[in-house]
């Protein structure tokens, strides 16, 4: 579908994004397939393609020189290996191809006058260069991706809304990636029963809900209060991650005096900024002298 999409036929929906819709039926369900072209993704993928194309073409050129140095017993074997090399080649073109005979004298030393050397094998000869046509063909497929939905109402759910909904999933995916990190030790658990796996998923989803809600509230309050929080690079930001906030709260200790009075040590201005955003339910654990 992407290979059949022409850029000039696509409609711009927002800056840097172009779309084209098609209808399809999959497993008996009618769907809208939205082909999306992103200029930012195109530039990013082409940059990666240039690096891979250079490495791939250099690798194929070395492989061809190695192949051209081999001596085959007959022309058929040489042509067979040449066809296989051309079929598998992704980055190069070969021109002026020849199957040449390799001749040697049957005896060592200086040959006698009039003795004709005999054919001992065949080699592949030719010129190999990086293919601009193959590179351009690879570039044509870059920057595209497809979004599918079974919501057929393109008036209430236009392509722009489909793209926005797709992008909003990234925050959830990032959250699950964080929950799967070694810090949570989830990978060390072995659950045999499906019920226990479901229970773990429920706990992880609940943790992600709290994690996301906390991040949303901190960022919202920082903007409302006109405050900023230093990120990992010591630069002020109003969009800190919950993971970084958790990390910054490491090192705080509760000191109990005479069994009743308690005091939180190492409480700094950055901690107070976050606590100011979160409000009294959180502040009482750090400011109050009672449990």
């Amino acid at each position: 579908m992407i290979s059949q999409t022409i850029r000039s036929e696509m409609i711009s929906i927002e800056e840097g994004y172009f779309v084209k819709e098609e209808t399809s039926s999959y497993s008996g369900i009618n769907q809208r397939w939205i082909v999306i072209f992103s200029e930012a993704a195109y530039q990013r993928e082409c940059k990666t393609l240039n690096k891979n194309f250079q490495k791939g073409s250099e690798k194929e050129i070395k492989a061809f020189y190695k192949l051209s140095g081999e001596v085959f017993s007959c022309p058929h074997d040489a042509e067979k290996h040449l066809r296989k090399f051309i079929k598998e080649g992704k980055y190069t073109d070969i021109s002026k191809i020849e199957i040449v005979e390799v001749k040697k004298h049957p005896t060592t030393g200086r040959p006698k006058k009039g003795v004709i050397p005999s054919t001992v094998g065949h080699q592949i000869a030719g010129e190999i260069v990086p293919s601009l046509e193959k590179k351009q063909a690879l570039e044509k497929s870059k920057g595209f991706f497809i979004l599918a939905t079974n919501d057929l109402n393109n008036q209430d759910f236009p392509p722009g809304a489909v793209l926005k909904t797709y992008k909003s999933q990234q925050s959830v995916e990032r959250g699950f990636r964080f929950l799967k990190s070694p810090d949570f030790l989830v990978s060390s658990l072995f659950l045999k029963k499906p019920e226990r796996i479901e229970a773990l998923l429920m706990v992880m989803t609940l943790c992600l809900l709290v994690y996301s809600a906390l991040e949303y509230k901190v960022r919202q309050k920082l903007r409302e209060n006109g405050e900023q929080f230093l990120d990992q690079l010591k630069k002020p930001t109003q969009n800190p991650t919950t993971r970084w906030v958790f990390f910054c709260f490491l090192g705080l200790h509760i000191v109990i005096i005479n069994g009743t009075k308690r005091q939180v040590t190492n409480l700094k201005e950055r901690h107070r900024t976050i606590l100011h955003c979160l409000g009294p339910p959180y502040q009482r654990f750090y400011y109050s002298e009672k449990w």
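The mean pLDDT is 86. Helices lie at 39-68, 75-88, 132-140, 159-179, 194-225, 242-248, 269-278, 280-287.
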